[in-house]
Write a structure and sequence with these properties.
With about 250 residues, the protein is of the alpha+beta class. The protein is built from nine helices and seven strands, in the order E-E-H-E-E-E-E-E-H-H-H-H-H-H-H-H. Helix content is about 35%, strand content about 10%. A hairpin with a 2-residue loop joins strand 3 and strand 4.
Length: about 250
């Protein structure tokens, strides 16, 4: 396939960015989207130009690093798929593809398509953990957990922290991400010790980072590549209200 790429180029977070048009030729439909960008960067290097910066790591849909906004959608046109698992067969010969970074105040652009998502790390540091020493797998399995509860906790734990929910939300809200982390631990017996302080601290840090408010549009869940449910946001709201009603923290 021969394609036209409209790529966001921005030298650093303080510079003014712009869309730059590139042409790529002989792209195999079996390539992943990131492999197509590799081809573009090889061409740019051969021409003595600066390659396009973009985030990636595992390229297996696990790490959540491949955060790209493709033709106005988080991770591109295929539902339930990360950018690294999106294949070029989803596009047609002659297509024009617009590629941008996540657009959110809390996700400043480092360079080109690479954004700083350390705000998510700070939210996790604020409370997304347990102090219980669960040891190895045998120790962790000593506490019986009903299967329906274990399944719900597992489904919440599948969040890969890619930030697609933030990019898809008109308010750049991180509620789906935070709710998945809160729900995962609130459902399990090992997470009960910090249950109240966890939700208070994580929501407070989310606000500090500058994420917007949730208005229940649902675009976050619609674009989530691993299918995190909006039910987690409802659980987060219940956890937060219960914590504030009984909290010693009056702030």
């Amino acid at each position: 396939m021969n394609l036209t790429l409209n790529v966001w180029r921005q030298p650093n977070r303080d510079a003014q960015g712009q869309i730059v048009e590139y042409k790529v030729k002989d792209i195999s439909p079996d390539m992943s989207f990131l492999e197509m960008l590799d081809v573009l960067n090889e061409d740019l290097l051969h021409q003595g130009q600066d390659p396009v910066a973009f985030d990636h790591d595992c390229r297996e849909g696990i790490c959540g690093s491949c955060d790209l906004f493709i033709n106005g959608r988080s991770h591109g046109p295929e539902k339930g798929t990360t950018t690294c698992q999106l294949h070029m067969r989803k596009f047609s010969d002659g297509d024009t593809i617009t590629i941008e970074p996540w657009r959110a105040h809390a996700f400043p652009v480092n360079k080109d398509l690479s954004v700083d998502r350390s705000a998510f790390d700070r939210i996790i540091q604020a409370g997304g953990y347990v102090n219980v020493n669960t040891g190895g797998a045998p120790d962790g399995n000593e506490i019986p957990i009903p299967k329906d509860i274990a399944d719900r906790a597992f489904e919440a734990a599948t969040c890969i922290g890619c930030g697609a929910c933030v990019a898809a939300c008109k308010n750049a809200s991180a509620m789906l991400f935070v709710s998945a982390k809160v729900s995962q631990l609130a459902l399990l017996p090992q997470g009960q010790v910090e249950r109240k302080t966890r939700v208070e601290n994580m929501v407070a840090q989310m606000d500090i980072e500058g994420f917007g408010a949730c208005t229940n549009i649902g675009s976050c869940a619609a674009e989530c590549p691993v299918g995190i449910s909006l039910e987690n946001i409802a659980m987060l709201n219940r956890e937060f209200l219960a914590a504030k009603a009984t909290s010693n923290n009056l702030a």
